[in-house]
Amino acid sequence: MKMRQVYLDNNATTPVDPRVFEAMRPYYVEDFGNAASIHTYGQKAHCAVEDARGQVADLIRARPNEILFTSGGTESDNTALRGVAARHQSRGNHIITTSIEHSAILRTCEQLEKEGFCITYIPVDRKGMVRLDKLKEAIDDQTILISVMHGNNEIGAIQSIEHIAAMARERKILFHTDAVQTVGKIGVNVEELSVDLLSLSAHKMHGPKGVGALYIRRGVSMNPLLFGGSHERSRRAGTLDVPGIVGLGKACELSNEALEAFNTRVRALRDKLEKGILEQIPDTVVNGSRTERLPHLTNISFRSVEGEALLISLDFQGVAVSTGSACSSGTVEPSHVLTALGGNQKLRDSAIRFSLSRMNTKNDVDYVLQILPGIVERMREVSPLYRAG
């Protein structure tokens, strides 16, 4: 009998919505023109790109000409940080970010430090919320950019972006947010958030991999990351991935339509899963905030259980989860996000991230709650640390 398959690693990537795939299909085979060409083939492609630009803008309440297409969240983050740093270094060399950012931000900041920039990493509290008092203290006359992620990819903590943006605006500092995990899942309005730059990615909301966008508020000046042709108003050189961009646009359109349902139905599934785990399995704890967080994610530690071993055991039963960021898989380092929260190292090593999508069902949750208690119990039976209490 075929094993049931349950995918609960949607913060790593999501399955492509069939409607997205169908929207993309013609631009691989029939309307395959280069969007920069002036003939009919090219103009069909160009129109498709501009339609998608409008769909992305609609989702985050921006203007279409404020949307820059990229290859994904990592390029968007790199473009924002390096583009602002290069353009504004004559005014200052100080950048502020946080200790729980995605590696696309942290590794870029490390490289900028090597190039002479000063980076301040703001700590978070036990719930994963940025210490606003520390952030305010860190701002000085050399600060040219603040970058704080909207929703954390490991624990789901949603930051007070509006308050941070107000601090930045008061000092005439540009503000960027990595919203890869929030766009398409909760309402994101760039005017209400008052951000200058915002990163998003298609494959986190049932779109294709390898395509994303960077919102750049009208009037913000920055250098391009890539040089070559005059594509994207000379802000990003390179032939546009028309099918991917069409897929991103369609994914944004569908996510826009489903936002309210996502916030209610998927949240209810997450809460059912979390409640069932905490009730059925003793010595478990939810990492991060239980309130100010994304509606589809829970990060839970299982005392005296090794996280990687639990992940593999669940995989053998057809359930896909994560121990943290997919971009950090294969490393032996503990999660920098959970480390930033403080607490017991062994609990951090036993953490599992469950992330749902609109394609998950009640039956998926029921299946996990059926098999997970037994798996944890068996693992603890052979754990001398657990038996010792």
Q: How would you portray this structure in words?
A:
Strands 2-8-7-6-5-3-4 form a 7-stranded mixed beta sheet, sandwiched between helices. Strands 9-10-12 form a 3-stranded antiparallel beta sheet. A two-stranded parallel ribbon has the order 1-11. Helix 1 (18-24) runs antiparallel to helix 10 (242-280), helix 3 runs parallel beside helix 10 (242-280) and helix 4 packs parallel to helix 5. The longest helix has 39 residues, at 242-280. The protein has 15 helices and 12 strands. The chain has 389 residues and is α/β, with parallel strands linked by helices. It folds into 2 domains: 6-14 and 259-387, Aspartate Aminotransferase, domain 1 (Alpha-Beta Complex); 18-254, 3-Layer(aba) Sandwich (Aspartate Aminotransferase, domain 2). The protein has helices at residues 18-24, 26-29, 40-60, 73-88, 103-114, 132-138, 161-170, 190-193, 231-234, 242-280, 307-316, 336-341, 345-349, 362-381, 384-387, and strands spanning 6-7, 67-70, 94-98, 118-122, 143-147, 174-178, 197-201, 212-216, 284-286, 297-302, 319-320, 351-355.
Comma- or semicolon-separated keywords:
2 domains, 389 residues, alpha/beta, 3-stranded antiparallel beta sheet, Aspartate Aminotransferase, domain 1, Aspartate Aminotransferase, domain 2
Poorly predicted runs of 5 or more residues: none
Find the CATH topology of the largest domain. Answer: Aspartate Aminotransferase, domain 2
What order do the SSEs take from the amino end to the carboxyl end, as H and E? EHHHEHEHEHEHEHEEHHEEHEHHEHH
Radius of gyration: 22 Å
Give the CATH superfamily of the largest domain. Type I PLP-dependent aspartate aminotransferase-like (Major domain)
Mean pLDDT: 94
C-alpha end-to-end distance: 39 Å
Query: For the report, how would you describe the main beta sheet?
Result: 7 strands, mixed
Give the CATH architecture of the largest domain.
3-Layer(aba) Sandwich
The best one-word shape is: globular
Number of strands: 12
Q: Percent helix among the residues?
A: 40-55%
What is the CATH class of the largest domain? Answer: Alpha Beta
- Number of structurally distinct domains: 2
Q: Count of helices?
A: 15
Q: Strand-residue fraction?
A: 5-15%
Q: Strand arrangement, largest sheet?
A: 2-8-7-6-5-3-4
Structural class category: alpha/beta
